[in-house]
Specification:
Pfam families: Phosphodiest (PF01663). With about 475 residues, this protein is an alpha/beta fold. About 20% of the residues lie in helices and about 15% in strands. It has eleven helices and 19 strands. The two termini are about 20 Å apart.
Length: about 475
């Protein structure tokens, strides 16, 4: 059920809260406190719901309409928006009032309303205020379709099961009124940079070549490289496929802005405005930067805006999925997005902006770690993880030597060992030289680490086979 809307006290200062006192816009009986409302919960007559997610759909289900009679519950929603200021009209529908905390039908008709935007309202006063406007809907014909920007947000590690917790209510509202998928399978490995490059180029990681955040390519450097950095060396790893932002700019000539979206600063043709990737950026920074781009004059405003944040991924890695910390970061994400959309609503830009919200992979609790120190899996380079990749090198051991070392331990330790030529074809991961030669694929919930004494933390991780239900991301 939606949040309950408390009846303000008699001495409530509407002006200080940035609200318009509805009593001043029409008559009501002396001593009553009138509130504009969305609808009444028939199971609890003392509760007035305040979330606009229950607007027209639920009114129809309850048999309510914008024209009330003596046999109907009050259902007019024509002036239910606390963010808008009513002006006098001739039509006078019956409205609901709240007297001593109980909803009743007003005996005095209230004026119909032709709304104009009032002063901005703090989020605490109307967290869901932006729900009153249809996202991306130009109902008044005021938006220039050639200048309506598209904003794409990527939330790292937004697991599918997060949407079953009743926390991401603003995301739920968008999904109900937009287009959504029932679920998303990531590419293998189900990791951040490989999947963002698949989103950008339409290619599997085994073809675009960004197969992990740490990669080894002796043609570029003689040691593994963190390819998240935008230096000249790291940019050499982004050498296959064309990202969609480059295609968009090349075909339209329009501007692109990118806030640390993976890959943006790495490809030869970077977006017009680029803020490089940095870990642990605040969510408010990402939303605030996008607001700055949308507030620019039409001639300077980017037509495609990309924003990436490393939450809830960054928090989830250190904790289990049902932890207080994970719940808190999800609540914060939902609240920050509400602030962002409220700002667009209050400034009149919400209806002239298109949005896409996506993520790269899901998450799973780690139940056990396998210490690679216990195995003699030596090669030219070994990159541990959920999927451990071994580069044999020109003079390294033959694959059969690795299989012999592992055959006694793998049933107990929960992994399989593959020559890259024998990887399941559905993974599309065996064609690129950067993937390595030998793979240790752990079963879901098990990961490989080079452990230091006393430093094993069983938090959460991702990267397993995308067929694991927990690997799926937001619908």
């Amino acid at each position: 059920m939606a949040d309950s809307l408390a009846v303000p006290p008699a001495d409530f200062n509407w002006a200080d809260a940035g609200l318009v006192n509805p009593l001043k816009s029409g008559g009501s009986s002396p001593g009553s406190t009138l509130l504009d409302v969305d609808f009444f919960d028939p199971k609890g007559p003392q509760t007035v719901t305040s979330s606009a997610a229950f607007l027209e759909r639920d009114l129809e289900q309850l048999g309510l309409s914008t024209t009330t009679s003596s046999k109907q519950l009050p259902g007019s929603i024509q002036n239910s928006d606390p963010l808008r200021m009513p002006t006098q009209q001739t039509a006078k529908p019956t409205k609901a009032i709240v007297i001593d905390g109980f909803p009743k039908v007003s005996t005095q008709p209230l004026p119909a309303a032709n709304f104009q935007r009032a002063n901005p309202v703090p989020l605490g006063a109307a967290k869901y205020a932006w729900h009153y406007e249809t996202l991306g809907a130009d109902e008044d014909g005021k938006c220039d379709p050639d200048k309506t920007p598209l904003v794409i947000f990527s939330m790292d590690g937004l697991a599918k099961d997060y949407f079953d917790r009743g926390i991401l209510r603003n995301f739920d509202f968008i999904a109900e009124r937009g287009v959504k998928a029932e679920g998303v399978f990531p590419s293998f490995q189900s990791k951040t940079f490989p999947n963002h490059m698949s989103i950008a180029t339409g290619l599997y990681p085994g073809f675009h070549g960004v197969v992990d955040a740490w990669m080894y390519d002796p043609r570029i450097k003689a040691r593994p490289v963190d390819i998240r950095k935008p230096s000249p060396t790291e940019r050499q790893f982004y050498d296959s496929g064309e990202p969609f932002w480059t295609t968009f700019h090349r075909q339209t000539g329009k501007k692109v802005a990118c806030f640390q979206f993976p890959g943006c600063p790495h490809y030869p043709e970077s977006p017009f405005i680029t803020e490089p990737y940095q870990p642990n950026r605040q969510m408010s920074e990402v939303f605030g930067w996008v607001l700055e781009q949308l507030a620019k004059p039409s001639a300077d405003r980017p037509s495609l805006i990309l924003g990436y944040m490393d939450e809830p991924d960054a928090t989830r890695h250190g904790f289990k999925g049902d932890s207080y910390e994970v719940r808190t970061v999800l609540e914060r994400l939902d609240t920050e997005m509400a602030k962002f959309l409220n700002e667009l609503y209050q400034t009149g830009r919400l209806g002239c902006t298109n949005f896409a919200f996506l993520s790269d992979h899901g998450f799973m609790d780690v139940r056990r770690t396998v210490d690679l120190n216990g195995y003699d899996f030596r090669g030219e380079q070994t990159l541990p993880g959920v999927v451990t990749r071994i580069h044999r090198g020109e003079n390294g051991p033959l694959p059969s030597a690795y299989f012999e070392k592992a055959k006694c331990e793998r049933p107990r330790d929960g992994f399989k060992i593959y020559d890259k030529k024998l990887l399941p074809p559905r993974l599309h991961f065996s064609d690129h030289p950067r993937v390595g030669d030998i793979f240790l694929l752990s079963e879901p919930g098990v990961e490989f680490k080079v452990l230091e004494p006393g430093k094993d933390v069983l938090g959460s991780n991702h990267g397993w086979d995308y067929l694991a239900p927990e690997a799926g991301t937001c619908p």
